[in-house]
Amino acid sequence: MRAGDLCSPFPSVRMDTPAIEAARLLAGQDLPGLVVVDARDKPVTVLPGTQVLRLAVPQYIQDDPALARVVDEAHADQFLAELADRTVRELLPEQPRELPVVDGNATVLEVAALMARSRSPLVAVVARNGVLDGVITLDALLDRMLGT
After folding, report:
1. Where on the phi/psi map is residue 130: left (φ > 0), alpha (ψ -120 to 50), or beta?
2. Which of 89, 117, 131, 147 has its CA 20 to 30 A from that of 3?
3. pLDDT score for 97
4. For the CBS domain, which residue ranges apply (predicted)?
């Protein structure tokens, strides 16, 4: 089986997509991450859901998790509201990792190696012209490898 056979349609976002919209898309569809594409629908990077949390949770709480216990639930819920004025571009790390992208002819093992190496919960599959064709999620990859 090749990557083109294993990939599925998947939502994508652009750099200027509001961060809160990306968070809603992640939560609403239970996605592990999103593919960020350019104006021609070519993958630019993968935005893992954890990166959204990194921007939503204040740095001082990330640095000292004990502080999370002193913030009441009403205020904790407001942290995601901080994403309203930000874009996907601001969610991305300054030093991007290897772009987890393969063409449709990649083998399952090539996809697994790339996913492991890039620590990405998904791999984008592109057509010959470089346009996003679909995505292989960690769940789909493990299902295929385990024969479930």
Report:
1. left
2. 89
3. 75
4. 95-148
Provide the 8-state DSSP code for 105.
Answer: T
What local confidence, expressed as pLDDT, does residue 9 receive? 94
Q: Domain segments of the chain: what residues?
A: 3-146
Domain 3-146, CATH number (from 3.10.580.10, 3.90.1150.10, 3.30.200.20, 3.40.50.2300):
3.10.580.10
Per the DSSP assignment, residues forming a β-bridge with 75 are none
* Sheet (strand 122-126) strand order: 101-103, 122-126, 132-137
Q: 40-99 pLDDT, tens per residue? A: 999 999 888 888 777 777 778 888 888 878 877 766 667 777 777 889 988 787 777 788
Place of tokens 């990194």: 54
The CA-atom distances, in angstroms, between 148 and each of 1, 28, 31, 122 are 15, 25, 20, 19
How far apart, in whole angstroms, are the C-alpha atoms of residue 35 and residue 132? Answer: 9
Provide the Cα torsion 141, 142, 146, 148; round to 10°: -80
